[in-house]
Amino acid sequence: MACTVAESSFLYLGVKNRRSEACGFFPQSTCLLKLGSLPNKRRKQKLLTSFRLQKVVKAVATPLAPPQRDSEEYRKQLCQEYGFRQIGEPLPENVTLRDIIDTLPKKVFEINDVKAWRSVLISVASYALGIFSIAKAPWYLLPLAWAWTGTAVTGFFVIGHDCAHKSFSRNKLVEDIIGTLAFLPLIYPYEPWRFKHDKHHAKTNMLEEDTAWHPVRKEEFKSSPFLRKAIIYGYGPFRPWMSIAHWLIWHFNLNKFRPNEINRVKISLACVFAFMAVGWPSIIYFTGITGWIKFWLMPWLGYHFWMSTFTMVHHTAPHIPFKSSDEWNAAQAQLNGTVHCDYPAWVEILCHDINVHIPHHISPRIPSYNLRAAYQSLQENWGKYLNNATWNWKLMRSILTICHIYDKERNYIAFEEVAPEDSQPIRFLKRVIPDYA
Predict the structure, then answer these.
(1) Is the dihedral of CA 271, 272, 273, 274 positive or negative?
(2) Helix or strand holding residue 390 (H, E)
(3) What is the predicted pLDDT for the residue at 33?
(4) How much is the pLDDT for 6?
(5) How many Cα neighbours within 13 Å face the side chain of 263?
(6) 32 Cβ partners below 8 Å, 6+ apart?
(7) Do residues 213 and 203 make contact, with C-beta atoms less than 8 angstroms apart?
(8) What percent of the chain has pLDDT over 90?
(9) Bridge-partner residues for 30, per DSSP?
(10) Under a CB-based contact definition with an 8 Å cutoff, are residues 90 and 332 in contact?
(11) Helix (H) or strand (E) holding 13
């Protein structure tokens, strides 16, 4: 049993640096003892006699529960440890999602065609500028051109994302067409993604049912040495690109969809494969294989960096729990379990404010251009319950090095605690990621 002074209910001060079999080494010669746990008076007397003779005791410790998120001081401490500006108070159990939605002004749900098409114009123009930059930039500036273009094409994803949530246009056929076209440069099938993403909103931070990031189950982690190492790399150094695995696993297998979804899924898959059959050979014909890498692959990897990073920051932090379906609360998951994160202004503009994410989870019908107004309303009415941060090194470090294996009491257990011999990638991240916000 691992014991600390803070967890004990009775203290005995013994000989300096002696070892208790139950507690290990303690500073100030501290052993932990709960006399009430000993079975009878005679044994207690015998134990007290042994104190005088040997000053060594086998302790029986009673650990107390870890501190809860009901203290402002404790939450401020967690903010400093995890890189947050604010960690919200737990939302009361009796608050419903409808209670929160009803506090939002009606105007944030209104679709504005001019603003919607302006978003399309911003994405098309910024992507075109990126392609031009890649074509003209010297080799040493290509990483900057790729970063810009990958971020710009992430804006395409956000436009398709609005279409999938029926918040882009009042014409649903237009939404299906624009959503499909916006996803094509990403080789993302629109309808399969829409079906799975709807489930993410319905089951946010539900342990088994959520289709986005969720903790690793301990039995899965221990199932085989090969899988364990793959998981460590996937949830460690490769995590900012693990949306690629999600893209492959979830969106191309017809067996993952209900019978009434199959026809729409097939249409989306046909569009993606047609784009690949025409687009990729055209790029290679005019620019060669190196051109395909420069103009498509590298921006696509940049998109997946943001896709992975945005989605894990939105719902992953050491203090945010995943819960089983019988304990899950929709209002708590969407308000308490979602993070607002500020990124550099150019990222926010090119990605259409997708990281103003809490109002989007309160109601996916809010268009992306109204998310800031909706968030301001949430701050006024529910501000003390909100999690918010500015994207920083410490935030990423806490996610990549702590948020690994599911634990009901602690939310997460780091890989290093369970498999230290295989956790070299995590120790590497701790060495290279700065520990400051």
Answers:
(1) positive
(2) strand 387-390
(3) 40
(4) 38
(5) 1
(6) 3, 5, 7, 8, 10, 11, 12, 20, 22, 23, 26, 59, 61
(7) no
(8) 81
(9) 13
(10) yes
(11) strand 11-13
Cα-based distances in Å from 34 to 8, 10, 20, 47, 61: 8, 5, 14, 12, 6
Positive or negative, the CA dihedral 172, 176, 181, 184 is positive
CA–CA dist 367, 361 (Å, integer): 12
Q: Are the CB atoms for 406 and 219 separated by under 8 Å?
A: no
Average pLDDT (401-405) is 97
Tell me the backbone φ, ψ of residue 205, rounded to 5 degrees: 60, 25
Distance in angstroms (rounded) separating the CA atoms of residues 336 and 291: 45
CA 295 to each of CA 34, 57, 154, 278: distance values in angstroms, whole numbers, following the listed order: 68, 70, 15, 15
Angle at 217 between CA 214 and CA 219, to 5 degrees: 165
pLDDT band per the 50, 70, 90 thresholds, residue 212? confident
Does the predicted TM-score (pTM) go above 0.90?
no
Please tell me the predicted confidence (pLDDT) of residue 67: 54
Give the relative orientation of helices 393-402 and 298-315 as an angle to the nearest 10 degrees.
80
> What's CA 170's distance to the chain center, in Å?
31
